[in-house]
Write a structure and sequence with these properties.
Elements (H helix, E strand, L loop, with lengths): L3 H5 L3 E5 L5 H16 L12 H7 L1 E7 L2 E11 L2 E9 L8 H8 L1
Antiparallel strand pairs: 1-2, 2-3, 3-4
Length: about 100
């Protein structure tokens, strides 16, 4: 029998981001960080430069029913891959999406 988290992750596809995904990734990141905008003074625009990140680093997306619901950004630094950002759209939070993104890479 499946639990609630398993059912929420059905049909979840994790794949490399494409340049055409940039706008959807920006919307996802902005939604994920929106609740922190008023709580963190000087919070930088974390969605700035997504297209650059896609072309110069490793960016992965979680897609469910054709919609990008999360993004994961890896940056090569000193011979290692550094996790730079993980953003899950708040409508899909607390369902294991972030864990799936991190551990599938």
């Amino acid at each position: 029998m499946k639990n609630g988290t398993d059912m929420c992750l059905e049909n979840l596809i994790i794949r490399n981001a494409r340049l055409a995904d940039a706008e959807a990734i920006v919307l996802c990141i902005d939604a994920a960080y929106s609740k922190y905008a008023s709580q963190v003074p000087g919070l930088p625009n974390v969605s700035e430069g997504v297209a650059h990140e896609i072309t110069h680093n490793q960016v992965w997306v979680a897609v469910q029913q054709g919609e990008i619901i999360a993004g994961l950004f890896l940056v090569s630094e000193d011979g290692f891959m550094k996790l730079a950002n993980v953003a899950v759209h708040p409508m899909h939070g607390s369902k294991g999406v972030e864990r799936s993104c991190v551990f599938s890479r």
